[in-house]
Amino acid sequence: MTGGRERGGRIVIVGAGQAGYQSAAFLRERGHAGPLTLIGDEGVLAYERPPLSKAYLTGEVGEEQLWLRPETFYTRRAIERVTGSVVALERAARRVRLGDGRVYGYDHLVMATGARARTPAVPGAGLRGVHTLRTLADAAALKTQLARAGRVVVVGAGFVGLEFAAAARQSGCQVTVLEARGRPLARTASAPVAAHVARLHEAHGSRLLFGQDIVRFHDGGGGRVAAVELAGGRRLPADLVLAGVGATPCTAPAEAAGLRVEDGIVTDSWLLTSDPHISAIGDCALFPHPRAGTRLRVESVQNAVGHARLVADRLTGTIRTYDDLPWLWSTQFSTTLQIAGLGHRHDDELVLGQDPDAFSVLLFRNGALTAVESVNRAADHMAARRLLAGNIPLGRLEAAAPGFTLHGHLTARTSHPTSRPVPAAA
Ligand SMILES: Cc1cc2nc3c(=O)[nH]c(=O)nc-3n(C[C@H](O)[C@H](O)[C@H](O)COP(=O)(O)OP(=O)(O)OC[C@H]3O[C@@H](n4cnc5c(N)ncnc54)[C@H](O)[C@@H]3O)c2cc1C
């Protein structure tokens, strides 16, 4: 079972997060009848991570609402759930070994090990009160701390840092966000969106400091953080620190087994690793994307689900290459930011909409639309996804015309005025 056309082979999935759960679910949905084992090291049912930095922290969503599926979902579909950490891929014998010595044989192995939060490489990062946010356990600890903390410092103005900062402010904390670069979302969003996000946090009373490198966390006594020191010596008092400085893909067992690993487990366009009996999906996979013209590692629910679907299709006989349109969302305070497409290498941009709190930014490269970022404009986002996924052309001149809307453009390009009317039912 390499490309995987046999329906009865043993499939083992390592990592019971969004991508792992989803691939097991899709495999059964598509008729995989062989043994199916889902191994995860968190000891809980697969859950949604997005609310961990948002509604879970503010108490709008409880733990029981995070589970992707109840226990019965797995038992009814004969998906064997195993709790444990896979420490070795024994490729020659086609089996995985857990830390406690248990082994599981496979015909095809799916690596869905995700990523883990990075810790800042400065002294004091291990102090109590300095947290990262990746897992439900991280979020539960932060939620408890937020109820007690007065002064919160967030290191890193990426999505997780900013979402946590919003939740901390909504919990009544004094919030300072530190960012090494010159603006928020420097790697992920355009300048107009970044400016909006900065204004949004400032309007809610948070302080954002850019171009700030941290050099140390100070111990206030008893091993608990009391301040964050910046390059230049300034100290910011802190009861609680969130380090939102990105995530590192979990690749150790893959790398030790000799699979090709760079910033993620390297795959081809079919999401197969350098071993044709092993696929890699979700946050841990570094895969070629035709829209990027290069290999990418994407951390989003859409990517995890899209990868899971492609691998389940392949293992049940429908083979295609991966080219799903990337999209994601972020919620901060009552603002929703949605991004469709890949805008990181844009050379031109155009803002749609006059309302400073509801607009979209169209990003172009070499005159072609590559991404749309929408702030509180859900209809633009949905239209953008269809335009981009369908490769429906849109040039800057057209988009700049008075009265232009993405939805209008989509309708004009997808309606078929010449098609014959459907006959009425007899
Ligand atoms: C706080 C937070 C907020 C987010 N918000 C959004 C959002 O708003 N929108 C969006 O699109 N995306 C968001 N994301 C990203 C999204 O949640 C991830 O892209 C998605 O969870 C990736 O799924 P995955 O299955 O690849 O990895 P994960 O969900 O990380 O699952 C991987 C699992 O594998 C386990 N594992 C790792 N190594 C082993 C091993 N050796 N043995 C056994 N198990 C192992 C891990 O413990 C983990 O349980 C957010 C992420 C975080 C952390």
Task: Indicate the topology.
Layout: E1 11-14, H1 18-29, E2 36-40, H2 55-58, H3 71-76, E3 79-83, E4 86-90, E5 95-98, E6 103-105, E7 108-111, E8 115-117, E9 130-131, H4 136-148, E10 151-155, H5 159-170, E11 174-179, H6 191-203, E12 207-210, E13 214-219, E14 225-230, E15 235-237, E16 240-243, E17 247-249, H7 252-256, E18 261-262, E19 264-266, E20 278-280, E21 285-289, E22 294-296, H8 301-315, E23 327-332, E24 335-341, E25 348-355, E26 358-365, E27 368-375, H9 378-389, H10 396-399, H11 406-414
Parallel strand pairs: 1-2, 1-7, 2-3, 7-20, 9-16, 10-11, 10-16, 11-12, 19-21
Antiparallel strand pairs: 4-5, 5-6, 8-17, 13-14, 14-15, 18-19, 21-22, 23-24, 24-27, 25-26, 26-27
Helix pairs in contact: 1-8
Flavin-adenine dinucleotide (FAD) binds at residues 14-20, 39-42, 49-50, 52-53, 85-86, 112-115, 133-134, 160, 250, 253, 282-283, 299-302, 304, 328-330.
Question: What this model shows, in words?
Answer:
Helix 1 (18-29) packs parallel to helix 8 (301-315). Strand 25 (348-355) and strand 26 (358-365) form a beta hairpin. 25% of the residues lie in helices and 29% in strands. It is globular and about 55 Å long. It has 3 domains: 11-116 and 248-315, FAD/NAD(P)-binding domain, CATH 3.50.50.60; 130-245, 3-Layer(bba) Sandwich (FAD/NAD(P)-binding domain); 334-414, FAD/NAD-linked reductase, C-terminal dimerisation domain (Enolase-like, domain 1), CATH 3.30.390.30. With 426 residues, it is an alpha/beta fold. The model is unreliable at 1-6 and 417-426 (pLDDT under 50). Bound molecules: flavin-adenine dinucleotide (FAD). Flavin-adenine dinucleotide (FAD) binds at residues 14-20, 39-42, 49-50, 52-53, 85-86, 112-115, 133-134, 160, 250, 253, 282-283, 299-302, 304, 328-330. The site of flavin-adenine dinucleotide has 36 residues, from helix 1, strand 2, helix 8 and strand 23.
